[in-house]
Amino acid sequence: MSLLNHNKGAVPLYQQLKEIIKEKIDSGVYEVGDKIKTEKELQEFYSLSRITVRQALNELVSEGYLHRQRGKGTVVLGQRLFHEQVLKVRSFTEEMNERGYKTGTSYVDVSIVKAEREVSLNLDINEGTDVIKLVRVRTANGIPIVVFDTYLSLETGLKIEELESIGSLYEFFSTKGIHIKYVDECFEVETADKRLAEYLDVKTNFPLMLRTRQTYSTENKIIEYTKAYYHSKLYKFNLRTEGK
Question: Which CATH superfamily is domain 82-239 in?
Answer without folding.
Answer: Chorismate lyase-like (3.40.1410.10)
